[in-house]
Each structure stands twice: as C-alpha cells, then as structure tokens.
Write a structure and sequence with these properties.
This protein is an alpha+beta fold. The chain has eleven helices and 16 strands. 35% of the residues lie in helices and 30% in strands. It is elongated, with a radius of gyration of 27 Å.
Length: 403
C-alpha cells in the first residue's frame, strides 16, 4: 500500500522522508514526548532516525490490514511530528500523534488527526478508531476533544510507563461521528479590574488553598470541604478544576492582586449544562485577604464575563444564581455589593458542619442588568474624577505660590 498525502488547514500528512531524520531526533528527545508518549519511537541519533524512516516505508509496503502505519505531519514545509495508526485487522484501530514544540498550540495536531480519520474511514473502511492517553495529559486529551471525541472512561492501571502502571483516559470515534467538539472547553481567561486579577491556578497555589480551606471560618460555611484540609486535598482540587473546564461544566479562577502574585481567593461559575442559560457563582477568600474588597471585585469581573455573549468573548449566560447560607454576612455583603438581587429563600437547605441546618438566601443577576450597572459605575467614576479635578483646581486657586 502507498502512504497517502493529505492536505489540510495548515498541515500536510505524508510519508516519512529521509530528510525528516533531524526532526525525528528532536521529537524523540523532547521531554513532553518522553513523559506522555514513552512508547513512541525515540531515535537518539540521525542513523536511528534514518532506520526508523526505512522501517516505516517497509511497513507501508507490506501492510495487509493489521499493524502499525506511521506518517509525517508537515507544518510550514517542515516535518513537525508523526501520526501512527495501529490497525487491529477487524475494521478498528488506535491513533497516536506527537508534535515538536514549535507546532503545538496551533491546531496542527487536531487538523492532522481529522485528515487521517477521514482517510481511515473512507479508504481503509475502518468503523471505529480509539485513543488512550495517561490521565493528566491534557494536551493529548484536548486533541481528542477537538476531533469530537469525549473521554468515555478512566481505566485504572491500563498503561505501563517506565515500569509503573498508570491510569488512562480512553475514547473513540465511529465512522459516522462528527469530527468537531461536542461541548465547549472552558478557559479561565484573564480578567482584571477593581484592583484584582483573575486567571488560571498555578501549582504553587496549593499552599494558599490549603491554608484558606483549612481555616475554621471557611470550614464553618463550606461543610463539604474535607476536614482536616491538607495540601494533598488542594492539589487534587486544582487538578479537578481542569476536568470541569474540559467538560464545559464550570470555569474557575484564582484571584490575585497582580499576575503571578500569591492567591488571594477563588471564584467559579459552575452548574453549566449544555443549552441551559443559567449558571451558579461560588467563591471563597483567604483569611488574610478579607475585608479589602477582593471578593466583591472578583465577583463583578467573573459575573460580567459569564453574562457577556459568546461572540464578545463571554460565556453567553442569561442568568447567574448565587446562594448564601443565612448568617454568612460577609458572603451576603459580597453578593449585594456585586449587584445581585435577593429573589428568595431555600428553607433549611444547608447542613453546616456543627449540625445546624440553615436557610439558603438566593440571589440572581441577569445579563440585561450587567450593562446598566456598568454604565452606572462608569458614570459614578466619571463624577468622582470630575469632583477630584474640581477639588484640585480649588486647592490650586486657594494656595498661591510664595515664590
């Protein structure tokens, strides 16, 4: 069989060539390839890479419907990685893709995979193609997502990595599945205003998260938190936020005074369901950042983003709900300062850690209200600046120079 040549958006999928040897050496030495794809060929020398190219050509020449087939992914006229199909001989197969760093994050991997999927289904007559990757390989999972495949399960100890068994995400695509994302993959986009910056969590946040969530004042109002709350709990929590983003179920931001600074608080928009116009807001603040307006500013930013149309870069929601346990006055003040309207009471809805059952005070905010509130705040800021300028002119007029 002759290898195909498949042209797509920004990529060319083609046979490996002897001129690809240097790229294959770089690919085999890449730390991320070694970390997440240890089964991929790792030629460490040009001679090894040349042998790999010859072996790939031989596999194509002798292929009889079963076994591996390897192709190059070309970007901007140069080999940028490889695609491998492992056919099972029964109308099925498994795909793996690896790209060099300079080709990542540009959609090249998903474009190449889509091209090969179409060829597999049409030319080879495959009915299904599967994929697997170690849990935690978010880049690999995102390629599968972009091609229309969701995680269909987590299989414990499926993979062996350097002698250790690892859990794996698995998924598939059938010949009649659309090769486009099924749901949004949400991103904690950078937001700034009111003296705070919202952005993604960082690994170093776990210490601050553990401190905040172990604080008695936090534990009192968030009874679902583990107790005691440890750094391991915090690390697991940060990892689970990416799962929420990947499935479109929620989006969560770390709140800082400046980019790269220590975490002050967290805010999330969650309970997001496909087709639903509503979501819920939740937040907590580190004890040493309370009383400074941090949580109010963050709530305003996240809420405005959630209620902004998708076309304008927001989540496109029409309504946000915010629930506060009766007696949690600090959280209630945040809701009210962020312009949420109290709309009801869910009686005896929350069981606190001390065994007390309390009401939830329910607030909401509508997309139609956000623009009006922003205009009011802008007018208030303009009035404040005008007053400051007038005060400055008066002071200047009343304090002549003594020169």
């Amino acid at each position: 069989m002759q290898p195909p040549e498949l042209q797509g958006e920004g990529v060319l999928v083609r046979a490996l060539r002897s001129s690809d040897a240097a790229a294959l050496v770089h690919l085999g030495r890449d730390p991320l390839v070694q970390r997440w794809l240890p089964g991929a060929p790792e030629p460490s020398r040009a001679e090894d890479a040349a042998a790999h190219v010859r072996a790939a050509a031989a596999q194509w020449a002798s292929w009889a419907g079963r076994g591996p087939l390897v192709l190059a992914v070309e970007v901007a006229g140069r080999c940028a990685g490889t695609l491998q199909l492992l056919a099972d001989g029964a109308a099925g197969g498994e795909l793996e893709v690896a790209l060099l760093p300079q080709a990542r994050g540009r959609g090249a991997a998903s474009s190449a995979v889509r091209l090969l999927l179409e060829w597999c289904f049409v030319e080879l007559g495959l009915q299904a193609v599967h994929w697997r990757t170690e849990v935690g390989n978010w880049a690999g999972r995102r390629v599968a997502w972009a091609c229309g495949s969701a995680v269909e399960g987590t299989v414990r100890d499926l993979l062996v990595r350097r002698g250790e068994r690892r859990d794996a995400w698995v998924g598939s695509l059938r010949w009649d599945d659309p090769v486009r994302p099924r749901r949004r993959w949400l991103e904690p986009v950078a937001l700034a205003g009111g003296g705070v910056h919202l952005g993604p969590h960082a690994p170093e946040d776990v210490e601050r998260i553990a401190e905040a969530c172990a604080a008695p004042s936090t534990q009192a109002w968030l009874p679902s938190l583990p107790s005691p709350y440890t750094v391991l709990d915090a690390a697991g929590y940060v990892s689970s936020r990416e799962e929420q983003h990947a499935t479109g179920a929620g989006v969560y931001w770390a709140v800082r005074a400046e980019p790269g600074g220590p975490l002050l608080a967290e805010i999330g928009i969650f309970r997001l369901e496909e087709g639903s116009p509503s979501g819920e807001v939740g937040y907590w603040c580190h004890p040493d950042a309370r009383g400074r307006g941090v949580m109010t500013a963050a709530t305003r930013l996240a809420s405005a983003h959630a209620l902004t149309t998708i076309a304008d870069g927001g989540l496109g929601l029409q309504r946000l709900v915010l629930r506060v346990a009766r007696g949690n006055d600090a959280s209630r003040r945040v809701a009210e300062k962020a312009a949420f309207t109290r709309v009801g009471v869910d009686r005896a809805a929350e069981l606190l850690r001390d065994g007390t059952r309390v009401d939830f005070l329910r607030y909401d905010l509508l997309a139609s209200e956000v623009g009006a509130q922003a205009a009011v705040r802008s007018a208030e800021r303009s009035a404040e600046r005008s007053a400051e300028r007038a005060t400055g002119r008066s002071a200047a007029a009343g304090s002549p120079s003594r020169g």
